[in-house]
Amino acid sequence: MSDVFVNYRTGDEESTATMIARELARRFGGERIFFASNSIELGHRFPVELVKAVEGCDALLAVIGPRWAEVRGADGRPALEAEQDWTRREIRTALERGILVIPVLVGKTTRIDRAVLPDDLRELADCQYRRFDHRNSESDLTALGDALARLLPELSDTDRDARAARERAEAKRPRKSAKDAGHTRIRTRDVEQRVRGGIGNLNGDLSGTFVNEPQGPVNTGRGHQYNAPHFQGDNTGVQFTAGDSSGTVHQRFGCERRRSDDGR
């Protein structure tokens, strides 16, 4: 069953109704949009199909142009006044069933005057409407589709434009290489780091140990590291007190601390 029924009057903006139906079908899928000339199969009885489609839709778009209330029937009277006028019957059925009805006012069409409406369509004048202008057709069609996607969650699931927008955003998102997946690299040409303690400027790809603001000599190679002579700790961490950088630091984990050679 179609989600959106496009209602229009022959002799008033049929081309606009066709444009709207075609764009909505492109965006949400043809099976989601009912438009009489396209949606009724050959040989099917259109009165039955029209009633069934209106009763089963979630929203009806009433495309209304400047001649909508003026088009006359075969008897010379305004077609809107005829009880069996299909445009009138479709809107009336939707209103009676509590279906969302959205008037689409084309061009310079003014808001619907309740005085020209038959009693069973008076509620149509109270429905919030959207405007469609051929000079802004692309943006107006997009806005109409966006509104329908917001109002009808099931319709939004088939929104091709929204899916394409997500794919474009995903394609533009930067991806990390496998080489950089496990750690973060800092380029000093991007970040200027000033270090005190005599090391000087650091250049290149800093992917290893980084020492900031050292207070004495720093050894990052092999051999002893000379820091403060006073050691504090319980083999669960290392703390150094400020000193004159004249001692050697030893630490073991998971075993008892040996006495020094002088204590044997």
Automatic annotation (TrEMBL):
InterPro entries: TIR_dom, Toll_tir_struct_dom_sf. GO terms for biological process: signal transduction. It holds the Pfam family TIR_2. Residues 159-264 are annotated as: Disordered. It comes from the Bacteria. Residues 159-195, 253-264 have a biased composition (Basic and acidic residues). Keywords: Receptor. Residues 4-134 form the TIR domain. SUPFAM superfamilies: Toll/Interleukin receptor TIR domain. Coiled coil: none annotated. Residues 233-249 have a biased composition (Polar residues). This is Toll/interleukin-1 receptor domain-containing protein. It comes from Streptomyces palmae.
